[in-house]
Amino acid sequence: MAFIPNTPQVPENVTIPNGAWWPVITTAAFRSAYRVGAHIDNAQVIEALQLAVMDVNGQLAAWQAVQAEAGHTGLGSVPSETYGADSAHVLRYRAAVHAGAKARLIDTRRDTDTTGDGHDRADALENTADDYRAESTQAIRSLLGQTGATVELI
Question: Is 87 left (phi over 0), alpha (psi -120 to 50) or beta?
Fold first, then answer.
């Protein structure tokens, strides 16, 4: 009897449809950036990314319309600092989408038949999902130039 190691299959890289104005979002880049392993089905990753794209694009719709009216043909053409091959806007956009998708995956991966120990671990992950949502919100706010909140005591 020969031992055949079980090597995990690398999920297919899928490009998420996102319109010509917005940067390309791929499952491979998301999996790599947010350490999403092959144990999570590609269909779940695709759905999480699609919903995150819809959410982020919706929040940026008014800003995008102003930029398009100013003659910018895509997010990468809106003036901002450049880091490597990408502009700060593109990096923040991807961070917003990826963080939103990661939060959604954490929220939807909690099983209903979890043991008591599993519930404790899932409760700990809940804070992580909230952290990813906050990361997504912060990336959107930074892209819009809204870097912080001012609180005034009365």
Answer: beta
